[in-house]
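Quick one: co-fold with LCLJCK34.
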Amino acid sequence: MKNFHLYAITGEEFHPRKDVIDVMEEALQGGADIIQLRDKTSKKPDVLKKALALRELTLKYDVPLIINDHIDIALQVGADGVHLGQDDLSLEEARRLMGPDKIIGISTHHIQEARAAQEGGADYIGVGPIFPTKSKKDVVAPVTTNYIKEVAAEITIPFVAIGGIKLHNVDEVLSAGATRVCMISEIVGSENVQQVCSQFREKLKPYQPVNLIVNGENHELHVQSIQELVLHFKLKPNLIIAEVDGEIVDRDSWSHTPVKDGTKIELVEFIAGG
Ligand SMILES: Cc1ncc(COP(=O)(O)OP(=O)(O)O)c(N)n1
Ligand SMILES: Cc1ncsc1CCOP(=O)(O)O
Ligand SMILES: [Mg+2]
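Sure, here it is.
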């Protein structure tokens, strides 16, 4: 499945005067890279209408569309996947209906559910609610950032943290080990949806790995500068010459020489003395 980091879920009760499709377009413009239609109150034909409109929108932005709860609607509109709760149909049944290539996400609240989801073939898991939230009526008690730590240490499929996440507390979520976050109210309830999404993207940046080619080998690393790269490889800075995309970079500039996906770096260690 295509990687994602900023997951925006619809929540029309948070923007009574704005159209859901416009709100989600603003989220996409701000950098949301996966969208979920979650509508717990509309009649099925209305959910279907919104799903069709969101399908068109997400294809325009080349971003996956996930439908919450309704597998039939997901199939009917050609969505990329479905999100299941623990009490919905089984992963096995969902996979049988959706086929091998569609995305199936499932909510988890403790590590046993996370293990079962991974073994059962889920493509990603929801991890939450991390904090208290008013966006879900039948919500369980907050699982706290401790659950993120457990999942990050053990689970190998992608996981996304959800529940009560705001710009002011997302750092706690990311420093506990999450690299993907999912929000309803903080995104769609904002006056400036695009700006909030861009702010989340900025918060996420330091936690995203970059793909670098270091001395001819591909590495996926959590580093932001040449300085951090040299430290990552536990090299002695004063014995290293760094070449970035063919240009030698002065040691004094390493800390403010950013690295991005695809950068080619040569780190040459020289032997001091004669
Ligand atoms: C990404 C993500 N994680 C968790 C949920 C919650 O799903 P569920 O437990 O089925 O509850 P409802 O959303 O249906 O109330 C989610 N939707 N998305
Ligand atoms: C759907 C869902 N599942 C767990 S918490 C939650 C609600 C998330 O909404 P918010 O980001 O507004 O707290
Ligand atoms: Mg559900």
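If it helps, The radius of gyration is 21 Å.
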